[in-house]
């Protein structure tokens, strides 16, 4: 589900970014537009940084909140504790001391282990941290590839997606597939795989984190000054800014303003593209009116034939011999008859019906001459 949501965000963002990019022909025409493209590139980097920070905030918010300012007890940081003493001194049944967290475990500020003895004893402490949310150790091959050793499942998926994106492993035709390079083939054992299969394949490459290992010597010498040993262990604690982070994620005021500005940018880019098309149209006419009119008439003729589903041969129609064929006279007669039959002729006062017909025929013939004039003749008139 997380990967699907991430892919959806990626597709939507990529579509929006593509809508805001100025075409190269406009950038060549207006050199000052490079400043806008620089801002667009900076916005892309800023969006990536904000998206990463949002994911980090979401991960931090998932951690349980400790009520009040009461300090956590020592045992609350660990999932299990194992103390291994010298097996030769205490035997195979008494050399291990183990503590594991249970649902009913009562937290404590420390652990005390006592064993009789009069000689120095080597002991090994194995501490397993209680990560919330759980963290996993990656397979060494995948860890070297992604640069991640131990992280949460969501962070591992994010690092994997960034690697796929940066190395262009997504299939160009089938977006739901990724093409495995030689490293992925060694790790996942397949030439290509679906995005939806990644969590299942990744499960076999995740292990429990390594425990913290502390080697210590328990000294019984009364003159030994090192009775206490201190070790620094990095643990995750609740962030005091969690309330502010939650408010930041739930706030939609800035997002609405950003959406409105993006819509305005899209409308401006669309208007620029339309103006560029109009400019090219007018510039082509001003440079060579005759060729422009001829090309325009040819284009309009093709569009008209496509709209009316008319079949014709442009190569024959552009020659004058085409209009000297025997069928032309019959076609002209049928055309005039169809025009006359669609009009209602009413004789005006002082005008005969024959006069009206003659005037109408002159008008039809005049239009007919214009209709059958070749594009070349019209170009010369212009």
UniProtKB/TrEMBL annotation:
A Pfam family hit: SWIB
UniProt KW keywords: Phosphoprotein
PROSITE patterns cross-referenced by the UniProt entry: SWIB_MDM2
GO cellular component, one term: nucleoplasm
Keyword flag Cell wall biogenesis/degradation: no
Domain DM2: 131-208
Keyword Phosphoprotein attributed: yes
Family in the record: Belongs to the SMARCD family.
Protein's UniProt name: SWI/SNF related, matrix associated, actin dependent regulator of chromatin, subfamily d, member 2
Species of origin: Cyprinus carpio (Common carp)
């Amino acid at each position: 589900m997380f990967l699907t949501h991430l892919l959806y965000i990626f597709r939507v963002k990529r579509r929006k970014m593509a809508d805001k990019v100025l075409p190269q022909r406009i950038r060549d025409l207006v050199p000052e537009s490079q400043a806008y493209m620089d801002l667009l590139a900076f916005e892309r980097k800023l969006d990536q940084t904000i998206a990463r920070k949002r994911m980090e905030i979401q991960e931090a918010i998932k951690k349980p909140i400790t009520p009040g300012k009461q300090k956590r007890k020592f045992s609350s940081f660990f999932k299990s504790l194992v103390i291994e003493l010298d097996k030769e001194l205490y035997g195979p049944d008494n050399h291990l001391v183990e503590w594991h967290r249970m649902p009913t475990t009562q937290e404590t500020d420390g652990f005390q282990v006592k064993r009789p003895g009069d000689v120095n004893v080597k002991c090994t402490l194995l501490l397993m941290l209680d990560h919330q949310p759980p963290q996993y150790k990656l397979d060494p091959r995948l860890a070297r590839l992604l640069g991640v050793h131990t992280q949460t499942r969501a962070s591992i998926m994010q690092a994997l997606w960034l690697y796929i994106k940066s190395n262009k492993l997504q299939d160009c035709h089938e977006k739901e597939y990724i093409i495995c390079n030689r490293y992925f083939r060694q790790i996942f054992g397949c030439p290509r795989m679906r995005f939806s299969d990644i969590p299942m394949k990744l499960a076999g490459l995740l292990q429990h984190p390594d425990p913290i290992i502390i080697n210590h010597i328990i000294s019984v010498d009364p003159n030994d000054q090192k009775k206490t040993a201190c070790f620094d262990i990095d643990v995750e604690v609740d962030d005091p800014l969690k309330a502010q982070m939650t408010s930041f994620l739930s706030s939609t005021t800035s997002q609405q303003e950003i959406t409105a500005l993006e819509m305005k940018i899209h409308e401006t880019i669309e208007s620029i593209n339309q103006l560029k098309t109009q400019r090219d149209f007018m510039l082509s006419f001003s440079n060579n009116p005759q060729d422009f009119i001829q090309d325009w008439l040819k284009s309009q003729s093709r569009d008209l034939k496509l709209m009316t589903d008319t079949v014709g041969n442009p190569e024959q129609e552009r020659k004058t011999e085409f209009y000297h064929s025997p069928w032309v006279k019959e076609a002209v007669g049928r055309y005039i008859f169809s025009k006359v039959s669609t009009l209602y002729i009413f004789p005006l006062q002082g005008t005969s019906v024959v006069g009206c017909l003659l005037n109408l025929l002159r008008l039809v013939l005049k239009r007919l001459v214009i209709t059958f004039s070749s594009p070349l003749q019209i170009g010369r008139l212009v």
